[in-house]
């Protein structure tokens, strides 16, 4: 027996809802995965420009969401600082790139107005962090750059996809219903463990790579998966704070770039930081991340 709505039509079943949501989500994912992998393979300026475009979209979405004064000045001024950061980073001037992002954040804060200054400045750091992180790992690293980004993709995509299916198919207690009503503990555990395993397999099965140390890399993958989920919750908290459902409608089935990249942004920053701490210099960030 089905339940009818006010118009007499049958209410959609959970299975139908899953199918209708999955189609545009899957199509968008295929396009984005193809673009990410092809630019990773090409590397260099193509890779940088792809992620710079993502960073500028993130910046636009964030500055739109917070609805602070002087939007055009915040968007175009912030975009100029992000581009400057990337240009300096491309030349290996890492300190200059970071300084540009910090100064840009200060400028955004000045334009944000009362009550929105921290949000306006934080948005530029959020957007710039992803392109800075992946450039350090892929373009500036002399060795293991491709492997580092592939590992990051495997961990984040594995965590995201398997958490989605784990939560939908298993259900159970909610993880943090106030911020994300659909996420469950089952989905979280399935997603994080799957992401850690897929990241490890990506390295172990790489025929041209160095022999991977399974245990530390699996643990690193688990940590990156947890941080990716934390990035998802962080983005959800921002949307809840400013009363929006999606960051934009640029990506069918996913909303906006913040909705799609929230976990990746956090995990990429974590990976770049770990690699930087363990490395012997800016040219060895990927080695520092992957070789244990």
Describe the structure concisely.
The chain has helices at 14-42, 44-66, 71-90, 94-112, 117-138, 145-170, 185-204, 214-242, 257-278, 285-290, and strands at residues 174-176, 180-184.
What does this structure look like?
This protein has helices at residues 14-42, 44-66, 71-90, 94-112, 117-138, 145-170, 185-204, 214-242, 257-278, 285-290; strands at residues 174-176, 180-184. With 292 residues, it is mostly helical. It has 2 domains: 24-41 and 143-292, no CATH class; 44-138, no CATH class.
Helix content, binned percent: over 70%
**Strands in their spatial order, largest beta sheet:** 1-2
For the secondary structure, the number of strands is 2
**Which stretches of 5+ consecutive residues score pLDDT under 50?**
1-18
Distance between the termini: 58 Å
Whole-number average pLDDT? 89
Give the H and E element order: HHHHHHEEHHHH
Question: What's the number of helices?
Answer: 10
Shape: globular
Number of domains: 2
Largest sheet: 2 strands, antiparallel
Question: Structural class, from secondary structure content?
Answer: mainly alpha
Strand content: under 5%
């Amino acid at each position: 027996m089905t339940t009818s709505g006010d118009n007499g039509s049958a209410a959609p079943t959970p299975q139908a809802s899953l199918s209708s949501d999955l189609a545009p989500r899957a199509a968008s994912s295929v396009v984005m995965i193809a673009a990410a992998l092809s630019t990773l393979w090409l590397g260099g300026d193509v890779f940088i420009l792809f992620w710079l475009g993502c960073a500028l979209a993130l910046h636009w979405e964030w500055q739109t969401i917070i609805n602070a004064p002087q939007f055009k000045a915040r968007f175009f001024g912030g975009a100029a600082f992000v581009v400057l950061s990337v240009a300096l980073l491309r030349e290996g001037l890492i300190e200059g790139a970071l300084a540009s992002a910090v100064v840009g954040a200060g400028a955004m804060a000045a334009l944000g107005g009362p009550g929105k200054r921290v949000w306006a400045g934080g948005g530029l750091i959020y957007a710039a962090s992803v392109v800075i992180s992946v450039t350090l790992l892929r373009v500036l690293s002399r060795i293991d750059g491709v492997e580092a980004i592939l590992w990051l993709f495997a961990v984040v995509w594995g965590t995201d996809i398997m958490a989605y299916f784990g939560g939908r198919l298993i259900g159970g207690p909610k993880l943090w219903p106030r911020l994300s009503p659909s996420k469950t503990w089952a989905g979280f555990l399935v997603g994080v463990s799957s992401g850690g395993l897929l990241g490890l397999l990506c390295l172990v099965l790489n025929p041209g790579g160095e022999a991977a140390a399974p245990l530390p890399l699996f643990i690193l993958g688990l940590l990156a998966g947890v941080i990716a989920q934390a990035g998802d919750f962080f983005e959800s908290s921002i949307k809840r704070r400013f009363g929006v459902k999606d960051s934009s409608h640029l990506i069918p089935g996913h909303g906006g770039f913040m909705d799609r990249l929230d976990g990746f942004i956090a995990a990429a920053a974590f990976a770049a930081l770990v690699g930087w701490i363990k490395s012997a210099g800016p040219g060895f960030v990927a080695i520092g991340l992957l070789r244990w």
